Amino acid sequence: MKKLAFLFVTLTVLLACSDEKAPFNYRGLPLSLTSTQFVDSMLARGFAVDSVASDSGKTVVFANKDVKYRVLMAFTGDKIAAVQENYAFSTNDSTRQLWQELRDGLEKELGAWPNCPILKDDHKVAKFDASDGLITVILENTYKPTLSVRYDPKKE
Fold first, then answer.
1. For 56, how many CA atoms within 13 A lie in the half-sphere containing its CB?
2. Cα 9 from chain centroid?
3. Could you tell me what percent of the chain has a pLDDT over 90?
4. Structure confidence at residue 125 as a pLDDT band (50, 70, 90)
5. Using an 8 Å Cβ cutoff, are 39 and 73 in contact?
6. What is the rounded CA–CA span in Å between residue 17 and residue 40?
7. 61 in Cβ contact with 70 (< 8 Å)
8. How far is Cα 100 from Cα 94, in angstroms, rounded to an integer?
9. Chain-centroid distance, C-alpha 33
10. Which whole number is the average pLDDT over 114-122?
């Protein structure tokens, strides 16, 4: 009986230790990086800093001709405050379809249902509570169709 109890305790400890979760990240880049490390990582991925759209003290905007979005990183000091992808399209249908694809992909990846405070045809919001942060997918089909995905690390 003691051996069985010891085996149970050992398995419990092993499972608890092996249940390490990945840090909150933006497309594989941990949001615990310093802002300088994040900029260097984005540059290594083929993005360029859009100096016209960036505010040297608060935000950096990245662009890449090979992707359909721009990335905005907001920072305070050397800590990342938020990362946001901004998509711009010419038709409302393409943004609605991409919003659904992104929402479904995050639902599957995180294994969680989103909180959807707004679900209209032309304005939708899906908020996912990841363990270390929040991911918000926002669709706004008004005069110019836009879609945003925002990653907000939780404050420590």
1. 1
2. 37
3. 57
4. very high
5. yes
6. 32
7. yes
8. 10
9. 14
10. 90
